[in-house]
Amino acid sequence: MNDKSTKLLDYVQMLDNDLSVGGFSHVFDLQTRIAEGRIQSQEELEGFILHPLMKHLVRQDGTAIQAIYEAADQQDIRQIARIDRHILGRIVTNEDDEAACQRGRRLLKLAQALYPWLNLKALDEIAHEDRSPVCLATAHAYVNYQLGSSCDHAVYGYMQSAVCTCIQLASRSLNIPRLDAKTLAGKWTAEMERVWMSEKSCLPKNLFNIQENNSHIAS
User: Fold this and answer.
1) CA 170 to centroid of chain Cα atoms
2) What is the dihedral of CA 52, 177, 184, 34, to 10 degrees?
3) What is the pLDDT along the chain (219 residues), one digit of tens a residue?
4) Which residues lie closer than 8 Å to 31 by C-beta, 6 or more apart?
5) What one-character DSSP code corresponds to residue 60?
């Protein structure tokens, strides 16, 4: 996966280790399970990756990223805002809301600094008018859309980052050797890519299809 999406994510994470794309809600859930003793072995970690992480990354976040690409193609800013609100409402509680939004804002600032030519006015408008705070998955999808990365590559980059972040965190708590953790991350990233390719055409998108008055992105 030597594409623009992965290059951006690698550089962003090098600059800001707290900014793990896909990692916020998933890492928080994993930390909770480890702290409560529900995950104590590599086998139990793989059970977590298979479910619920697979469901979240492929069938929810992947679908949302795909929907953002379609809305961006249609220059539909209201649809992007709806998708953003849906993602945010699903992954955070009220007290975590600001933390989730900060990650999205930091990714946008870093992306704009790395690529000054990016047109991120649509997300600025969403945030400015308080239609939605622009969470991390939305920022990731739209930045990669503007970079010209394919939707599949944007989804892959998102899944790869989340999987690697979760395994890196768990490996320290569960004493999984570094090489084994790396192998595990490669195994599950490849499996999620396979599931995404087999299921992406039939994943439901009706959650995002609430009709409102159109408002299009300024060019």
Assistant:
1) 19
2) 0
3) 446 666 665 656 555 555 566 566 788 889 899 999 999 999 999 999 999 999 989 988 999 999 999 999 999 999 999 999 888 877 655 446 666 677 788 888 888 888 889 889 888 888 777 666 788 889 999 999 999 999 999 999 899 888 988 999 999 999 999 999 999 999 999 999 999 999 998 877 666 664 444 444 543
4) 169
5) I
- Say if residues 53 and 164 touch (Cβ distance below 8 Å): no
Give this prediction's pTM: 0.85
What is the C-alpha separation between 148 and 142, in angstroms, rounded? 10
Question: How many beta carbons lie within 10 A of that of residue 150, not counting itself?
Answer: 14
Any residues with CB less than 8 A from the CB of 44 and at least 6 apart, and which?
38
Residue written as tokens 């990669």?
144
| CA–CA gap between residue 41 and residue 139 (Å, rounded) | 34
Residue 191 token pair: 């499996």
